[in-house]
Amino acid sequence: MTTTTDAQIGQKSQGILKLERRRRITMGVLFLAAAVFIWLVFATDVEPGVETRFMMNPGGGSAEAADWVFQSLPYLNMIAGILGLLGAFQIIRGFGKYTYGVLALVAILFIFGFLTWATAGGQTNLAGLLRVMVVRAVPLTLGAMSGILCERGGIINIAIEGMMLTSAFVSTVFASLFNSLIVGLLAGIIAGGLMGLIHAWLSIKYKINQIISGTVINIFATGITSYLSSKYIQKVEFQYLNEPGMFPQINVPVLSKIPFIGPILFSHNMYVFAMFFFVILLTFMLFKTRWGLRLRSVGEHPKAADTLGINVHRTQYMAVILGGMMAGFGGTYFSLGSSGRFDEVMTAGRGFIGLAAMIFGNWHPVGSMGAGLLFGFFDSLSAKASLLQVPLPSEFIGMAPYLATIIVLAGVIGRGHAPAAEGEPYEKE
Amino acid sequence: MAPVLELRGITKRFPGVLANDHIDLTVEKGEIHALLGENGAGKTTLMNILYGLYHPDEGEIFVNGQKLEVRSPIDAIKSGVGMVHQHFMLVPVFTVTENVMLGEEYVKAGGILDRTKAANKIREISNIYKLDINPDAYISDIPVGMQQRVEIIKLLFREADILIMDEPTAVLTPQEVEELFKIMHTMIEQGKSIIFITHKLGEVMEIADRITVIRGGKVVGSTTPAESDLNNLASMMVGRDVNLEVEKSESVPGEVVFEVENLKVLDPLGALAVNDMSFKVHAGEVLGIAGVQGNGQTELVRAITGLLQAVDGDVRLCGQNITHLSPRKITEIGSAHIPEDRQKDGLVLGFPITDNLVLNTYYLEPNSKSIWIDQKSINENGRKLVQSFDIRTPSPFVPASNLSGGNQQKVIVAREFSRPIKFLVASQPTRGLDVGSIEYIHKRLIEKRDEGCAILLVSTELDEIMQLSDRIAVVYRGKVLDILDAKYATKEMIGLLMAGIIPSEEEKQKLLTKKKQILMT
Fold it and tell me: Which tens digits make up the pLDDT trace of B81-104?
């Protein structure tokens, strides 16, 4: 893709330019606010000479790394300084197409500042925190990619939660029955695909409002899995149906030996690696291939696609079924990748948060994974908040990512571009 | 040699309508064949059949003498038929290259897009036909005229030999129309054939080699520009003699009734859509607002009718400042509004005609007594207006959605004109109407003017503006560039202003004297 030339910018309406300018400045002010916050709240709270100690071993890993100890105050001042410079540059010139990358950097620096302050005079297991972050990001990112597949084709999918839950149940039963994780995994993916088919069928063939169709699927999935679970697989006599086992941890040769990075990224079960693989694959497929161009055209302007001979409904069926399969794969994570059994409503809203990650990530797989990691980080942090000396209930830390989502959805930072035709059933005249 | 395209006996029925009735049409190689007809005559249906979007109930299609089964647009594309749709079929967030190759992608192994190769091909086509297109630009960043050329490239990229152009001039400035005509000539020189669908007679006379006129789903005649003239074509199209000129006497402007001063209005995105506009409308005159669609007209109308809050400036009606008044207050002072989108803003489609006729007077005597609606009085009012405004309907109690576009518009006109009004905003009052209804609406507007009503006419149809207005304000990007006396204004002059070009005083005088001389002789 190429950048727009000056001539074309000249043709952009004044209004759009103004809007871009306003967003640029809003973003810059946000950066500056982060800098001021660190400086005023965190830095003033820390005594000079106090040290921050980050432990760099998550525990249980095969690589060893020394603890990272440093003076808290100079680091906080330095972070505030960097954020201030970034904010000033953003207001004056703007980072242009790198803005979102810089935003991510600012978020990371801010969180680092927060941790430095929270840990001042004590210690935090940074590596453990990050390792849990990656794990927690898996279902969110897989859910987000399910959403991306559907919505890039113009079908809203709020049924991710239900698809995941169904798949978690089905995979548990099949893996237990056949005593095979692979069979369970495949059964889960197929179950997700079938749920996708139902959603596609309701919203494409019968043109039922897609939100309603998705809600129906969610309610149905919660009801049926809870019923079957309490009636059968939670009972002692059917206990053999709820023992699927779990995918083992894989230590990638060489890479997992890297200190700090190794245990965080390269010592996991296959779901983490699958997440990275699918993010790369889907990005490539969407933006570099014929398949992706056609899928996106259907989500943006189905009539245009139709007049060029693209079968809109077939494309949408394919997208929603694939999306269902992706959610199905994500669903098996709960049973086969995380807990080794099925519990009622064990997805606990992760599918919906995946949807939020999709929007936060601007319908882009990489962005959604970034959002998934961010949400995962706060998830991981709130679990450990009691260990930190923070005068803040852990629930508030758990809230932070969702506050951020609301701010993003309100369009403060810049409105994302949802596929233009999503939610509208396409009808040939 | 066989003609490039032959349609024989094409018939298409929709529930209750015979849209195409045994239509025959022959297009020779290298000609521009105009398909002329009113809105609703069946032109677009016919072309959608040819393009595979509809399936005909009867009839055959031959391309280069070969019988063709068109089941989907793919079949049409394969046989060399392409269509530039009235509403562009472009994805705004895609680049030109992506839009052009969609459906016919250049790929490397494994289905990976070859954007460079496609972009080169587009550059090549752009050079041959002098289209001046940058393949890497995003559609949302380029102007409408250029978007249309992208649509044309889409067809040339697929090596279409027969190009259907559905009302291609509707969205263009007069200068862009000239450009388009040049491009059409280049395409003919390269051996393409063009079917040009339109209801604009002047354009047909200018560019067509042959003309086929359709009325009520039937072919009513075939002719050439040389054998025909405007009045002749118009009566063929409408089926009776039409008077193309609007008869009107010199206006007798009275005092200023309506005034806009330094008005600023934002669009939904927060950009200044109306940027410092000022003008006055006198009693007994029509002020026309000319301009290409999307230059602030919609926001202007919404602001002066109270539907949108202005951010700055004043609007005065009969000496009263109405800038921040509610629509009802403004209506009560004596303002009337014929909205741009009659189905969305003008009528409640599910309501019967009678109720639609009292949408802004239902709460007043005699339609209401204290808190009670007087249905009898409303029905009486409905019967009376249906008759006096010649609304063609089986009964005044059918829902407004059952009426044709022309009759729907008559309901709005009847509602607004049956109250005592001093000022009227008419926004696109004849868009999409048949010639009969257009004549009727125009006559009523001039009548209202002669009664001393001040009229603000907003239209993107330049002909309509020139026929009705006494003065013409040309808007561009939210500003009034100039206000011209309609007697001396030429299409050329207005066209320049519509494109944002302000002619120097010297040029302006030259253009104006030209018109004066024509008037003298």
Answer: 999 988 899 999 999 999 999 999
HSE (CB half, 13 Å, CA atoms) of A309?
22
- Closest Cα in chain B to A22: B270
Quote the DSSP letter at residue B460: S
Neighbours of B125 (CB within 10 A): 20
Domains and CATH numbers, chain A: 128-382 (1.10.3470)
DSSP-assigned letter for residue B246: P
Range of the domain at B512: 251-334+421-521
**Strand residues in B109-204 grouped as ranges (E):** 112-113, 162-166, 193-198
* B47 shares a domain with B113: yes
CATH of the domain at B451: 3.40.50.300
Residues B392 and B490 in one domain: no
Query: Which sign does the torsion angle of CA A267, A273, A279, A284 carry?
Result: positive
Interface residues on B facing A, Cβ-Cβ cutoff 8 A: 48, 51, 53-54, 72-74, 77, 83, 85, 89-95, 98-99, 101-105, 107, 110-113, 134, 136-138, 141-143, 154, 267, 269-273, 477
Interface predicted TM-score of the whole assembly (ipTM), two decimals = 0.86
Residue A87 phi, psi (nearest 5): -65, -45
* Residue that terminates a domain, selected from B419, B446, B463: B419
Instruction: Tell me the pLDDT band of B495, cut-offs 50, 70 and 90.
Output: confident
Which residues on adjacent β-strands are paired with residue A125? A55
Q: What percent of chain B clears pLDDT 90, i.e. is strictly above it?
A: 61
> CA A159, CA A179: separation in Å to the nearest integer?
29
| Interface residue ranges in chain A relative to chain B, Cβ cutoff 8 Å | 1-2, 4-5, 8-9, 11-16, 18-19, 22, 288-291, 293-294, 296-297, 300-301, 303-310, 417, 420, 428-429
The pLDDT of residue B509: 78
pLDDT tens for each residue of A292-319: 999 999 999 999 999 998 999 999 999 9
Q: Measure A19 CA to nearest chain B CA, in Å.
A: 7
Dihedral over alpha carbons A216, A219, A222, A228 (to 10 degrees): -80
- For residue B138, which phi and psi values (nearest 5 degrees)? -85, 140
Q: Please list, residue by residue across B334-350, b when 16 or more beta carbons sit within 10 angstroms of its beta carbon and e when fewer do.
A: bbbbbbbebeebbbeee
Shortest Cα distance, chain B CAs vs residue A290, angstroms: 6
Residue B349 sits at φ, ψ, to 5 deg, of: -60, -35
Report whether pLDDT(A1) > 60: no
Half-sphere exposure of A393 (CA within 13 A, CB side): 3
Instruction: Give the type of residue at A139.
Output: P
Tell me which residue of B280, B3, B277, B335 sits closest to B162, measured CA to CA: B3
Co-location of B38 and B101 in the same domain: yes
The CA distance from B114 to A288, in Å, is: 9
Residue B399 is classified by DSSP as B
What pLDDT, in 10s, does the model give residues A346-404? 999 999 999 989 988 889 999 999 999 988 988 888 877 766 666 777 778 778 777 77
Burial state string for B58-84 with b = 16 or more CB within 10 A and e = fewer than 16: ebebbbbeeebebebbbbbbebbbbbb
C-beta atoms of B89 and A308 within 8 A: yes
Integer Cα distance of A108 and A38 in angstroms? 13
Cβ count near B471 (within 10 Å): 20
